[in-house]
User: Fold these one by one.
Assistant:
Number 1:
Amino acid sequence: MHPLDQATALTRAADGLWDGATSDRYWNFAGPFGGYLAALTLNAVLKDERRLGPPVAQTVNYCGALAKGAFRIATTLERGGKATQHWTVRLTQGDAVVTTASIVCANRRETFAQAVTERPAVPAPESLTRFVAAERFAWIGAYDFRFVEGGPVLDGQPRQGEGLGPSRTVLWMRDAPERPLDHLALASLADCFILRLLQMRGKLVPMSTVSMTTYFHATDAELAAQGTAHLLGVADSKRFAGNFHDQVMDLWGRDGRLIATGIQTVWYKE
Amino acid sequence: MHPLDQATALTRAADGLWDGATSDRYWNFAGPFGGYLAALTLNAVLKDERRLGPPVAQTVNYCGALAKGAFRIATTLERGGKATQHWTVRLTQGDAVVTTASIVCANRRETFAQAVTERPAVPAPESLTRFVAAERFAWIGAYDFRFVEGGPVLDGQPRQGEGLGPSRTVLWMRDAPERPLDHLALASLADCFILRLLQMRGKLVPMSTVSMTTYFHATDAELAAQGTAHLLGVADSKRFAGNFHDQVMDLWGRDGRLIATGIQTVWYKE
């Protein structure tokens, strides 16, 4: 069993009620990296027999830190029709709400289709070296990252003004060990970009994502065709102000199609 | 009282429970335009005494059509700390969930700030003509739109392939009549872009936004300085596939600062 499937395993406690326990594999600082909670909350809907079809959109709200140990996930099917279905998800530990999520599933068919943006031209992942992180970031070891531009400079030397690092990063990424791409993996890959504040300033201060939204564009056939190949990820920000910054991301398939897009907003202390 | 304030007026029924009634002013086809529901759900949190500070992020899920008449809004404070606060909002008519929303509020201060993107250089709104819509789109009359590029071509002639219209639109926008900018108005202005599917194909087919996320970047001082001036809006899409397309938007202030950004995902039938 792949580590992602182990770490996101859920046991059905009742209709729309799931039990699970944390995994060290996707740990960051004070808790798991946010992509793990995105995968967990999505999985509770993916496993539900009432689900209409594949997910189209997911918003995850990071309300508080997840402690190591057991948690419970409750799902509510807010409303469903023939075309779309709206879910609310709440992950708790005891009485504390750790994460909420809203998920839209749909009955997707082939109709009018149009690609508006194009994948950047970059070197193949095979020509690049895999990024090796310090052992204290467990979750980074759960991925194979190959930076094309905007690789992390974590030297602890704070940069500011014209000395700031680039806001844009382009990298190839996939699960390590390899795992065929599906929505569960996509939900976490969407959060695999190092926070732009750290990227630009090179300095660790208290910071965390408070909300993340991911849109799943790929058809099931495109996900299957992607298999275990690397995705090309592009991340950037638009503005840092008032203790928060946004982050924008695109994930491209090896065939040049846009697999997923999303945004997140990040709180930072200073 | 401004039409937006009339249309979003709420009466407190109990703690976290609000009653309201629809307004024809912001009506679209089968219901109000989505920005009206964004403003309504935000207002229930803005009016709450427990609110920590200004909103940072809002995700609105459009679960079903809002019928004319009374509705109820229930808010839940999921979790709050010194820096951030997470709310869930549910708007219902009878037993039917019409809209859900998640809203993050925060205690915002001035700290590290950086503008990454720059406002496009465009002609001033005073040099452009206000867009006049057919009377059947009531909500368009509630705004002063001045198109810089990518204005709507609603001639009913379906376009496809190389004949598709541009995906990008740039326009000046503000409430009509004028109203000083605040978060309530911003929440609806974020949804003031004609759906990209209609923009590109020029043909009305069944379509509707299923989820929209808006990030509020501007400080309170910047909002106050904006006053009743036009905002510059930029909208585009990245991909249309499997009955859904995304939409990306930026709202710029007259001083060149990025006031809000967001995305939405739109279902379309064919």
Number 2:
Amino acid sequence: MTLDDLYTPCLIVDKKKLTNNIAKMRAQASKLGVTLRPHVKTAKSVPVALMCAGGAVGPITVSTLREAEYFADAGFKDIIYAVSMVPAKLDRAKDIIDRGVDLKMIVDSAEIAKQISDAGAKYHRVYKIMVEIDVDMHRAGLSPDAPELIDVARALHDGAGTELAGVLTHAGESYHCKTKKEMIAAAEAERTSITRAADNIRAAGLPCEIVSCGSTPTATFAKDLTGVTELRAGVFVFNDLFQAGLGVCDKDDIALSVLTTVISHKKNQNRIITDAGGMALSKDHSTRGTDFDCGYGLIADMSGHIIGNLYVLGANQEHGLITSQDGSKIDFHRFPIGSKLRILPNHACMTAAAFDQYNIIDGTDEITETWQRCNGW
Amino acid sequence: MTLDDLYTPCLIVDKKKLTNNIAKMRAQASKLGVTLRPHVKTAKSVPVALMCAGGAVGPITVSTLREAEYFADAGFKDIIYAVSMVPAKLDRAKDIIDRGVDLKMIVDSAEIAKQISDAGAKYHRVYKIMVEIDVDMHRAGLSPDAPELIDVARALHDGAGTELAGVLTHAGESYHCKTKKEMIAAAEAERTSITRAADNIRAAGLPCEIVSCGSTPTATFAKDLTGVTELRAGVFVFNDLFQAGLGVCDKDDIALSVLTTVISHKKNQNRIITDAGGMALSKDHSTRGTDFDCGYGLIADMSGHIIGNLYVLGANQEHGLITSQDGSKIDFHRFPIGSKLRILPNHACMTAAAFDQYNIIDGTDEITETWQRCNGW
């Protein structure tokens, strides 16, 4: 089976690019002396997670308990669920732990820490919990110097049903950096903040074994991770246009694309219409407003070569509207109705989520493998 | 099982609102003397499609062949696939037709019409094809007065493997109307354009049985559909914030919401964080830039009452960031970590697509039914 035989829209993964992206991040973690704990939320696929540990079952980060269950089914044993835990979700966590998984969860509230401990004690379990740290006002977590940090850490350490496993942060504001220099600075700020949080916990006489940080930009540009034990990053496996716009990767490093079919020509509007709309590409518009605006995606030919000047201007539910970025006339003869194109995504995590599987190519147009992914919660 | 027992994020459908939304559109079609052919792309769920024909199997519109297959499995026999057909997809269409489905497809190119006819002749099939008409420069289709319209119609009529089944349009630009008056005008413009296309085809000595038009705004506000045979609309079943912003419905008519759990308080940023992020809500931001900006959604309590002044400011992959629209202080005691909220979506079609099923409520917090939906292609 080749690309031309696939029903569109569908996902294509270029295995050479995927392999190269993963090798670079593995080399970076190795150089900095930290464990790479990939965030599998991007690909949500066992073969990709295995590649991240050189073909082995390694430590992973998940964004949903569904992912934890799916990867546990495949034999993954060391998992951090990196979204704030609430007591109502403990039943599923308990089942995962009872299958032999070393599952670690995160909280940023002493009250919730206590509730989780009470639940653990009731079920004769000791849940491993990390404290989420906020290093850049991006999302959840406690500031490294907040007095509540010690309250939460102590509640976890003293609780009969919990064990304080460490600290975790995600420097998500690095997505707003404009230059490589700013990303290097964001990485160093992430390191100093997370290690200060760990030091503050230890200074209070409490343990802090795992010191976990990361985002694809800061993981890529970190120069020193002294005091950090592990590095998390997700989108690096595929990369995407948003990352290319940041300078984290080159457009040619993007391993994921949506295969689509030209279904209509609107010559009076200088538009090609394809069958990859908002459902297939997602409505992520994250490059908009930047000087790297790619609309809903850039266009490549079947070989993966980017066709300069074309982009997805609009995305209705099942229609993608392609036009030229500078208003120049499209040569419609190059793109007959029925021919196929590949669309590079703004945001790989969101785009991949519409699909159940990846079609893998490796140097030719032959589909060498199909890999499943898990969606939902 | 009640709302409080559900694992979040998940979809909730208020059956009373759904029933009322459908009753209104059925009454509108009846009043105007046209067949209602709901576009099932929004709910993608058999029970909802059945409600649209008063509990019966009625005519439907689909946006993917996967939907056509799913609804064929449930006994639906009269289906229009309303995305431009290409020859490479005919194999699946043929299988659907061979199951006894009266499947109609659309094209806007004489060359493709000929290719489909050749394929039909080869497989001893006569494919029913409609010509897509462009009434407002929104997407695909031919202008009602374009000479190519007659070329395509004639190719379909004369082709050994095709039958000219009619004309179809979607007045998608009605989504950009600002007032009820503009929507009434858009509906009338849609009617005059599609009936002119039909008249032009008939004037050329060709048949044009089906004259199909619609969008939720034009279907809602049409005053007269003389010459039109059927009305299509999709999102009306659930409605959403974008439609409420247009004035097509009231916010209290929105039947779909995402149930979510509060997972963190960021008091220093006046934010509540929930477990419904971009994956659960979609990245659709279609109310942005309007005077009805709802961020990524408005917030309701467990009873479905909208909590004034709160909205989803940001949507990371699995985190929703809620704050107040006017900067006023959130009363965090009202929304403890672990408590649940319901989020009204900007765009119901996109939001529902992340989920496999709907949890139905009908006047209380009890889940009375769960309905499956079909995703993908």
